[in-house]
Amino acid sequence: MAEKRVVRPVKSSSAKPAAVKKARRPEVRLPPLAPWTGGELEPDGDYDGVEFTAADFTGQDGGGATFMDCALEGCGFDEARLTRARVLDSVLTGIRGVGTDLAEATLRDVEVVDARLGGVQLHGSVLERVVVRGGKIEYLNLRKARLKDVVFDGCVLVEPDFGGARLDRVEFQGCVVRGADLTGAVLTDVDLRGVAELSIARGVDRLAGAVISPAQLFDLAPAFAAEIGVRVE
């Protein structure tokens, strides 16, 4: 008697890729605030429920200070030192500064609106549940920083440096990103599809873990070709 052969259905290997995870946005609800009475920032100072309006902190030292449930509007931070500062549950509107030092700072549940910053140092910092909406930031240094649940919305980033940084659930929406450096960066659930203008100066090979649009793939084709040594003539 002939042996029966059982034909099993072949499972398709073309599994649908998992959707990119969305960033969790901060929900900042400020309590009644006390107006800032002036003076200089203090190293390791503690500012809780304070409203800073048009204050000028140029060159001041607030290293290690904590800002909790604060509103900062129209404040200047040129060459201010805020290393290892902690900014928690706060809203920063219209802040400006060149050379502001926020190295190893912590920003958690923070909204940054219409900032005008240049050469701001955030290397080694931790950003969690942060929205950067509008404004322009040039030469942003986020080397070896950790970004989790961060949204860049409608802002302009000129030559941002993400070298060695870890980006987890980071979204770029309606913004411009020019000359980004991704050298050594690790990306997980990074959504770049909403970037209106995208160029990567270094580290295009680190885009694994990011999602881009077909149009962006076309724009980045020369960078990809250069990365693998292909000449396009």
From TrEMBL:
UniProt superkingdom: Bacteria
SUPFAM superfamilies the record matches: Pentapeptide repeat-like
Annotated region described as Disordered, given as residue ranges: 1-41
Coiled-coil residues: none
Low complexity: compositionally biased ranges: 9-18
PANTHER family: BTB_POZ DOMAIN-CONTAINING PROTEIN KCTD9 (PTHR14136:SF17)
Protein name: Pentapeptide repeat-containing protein
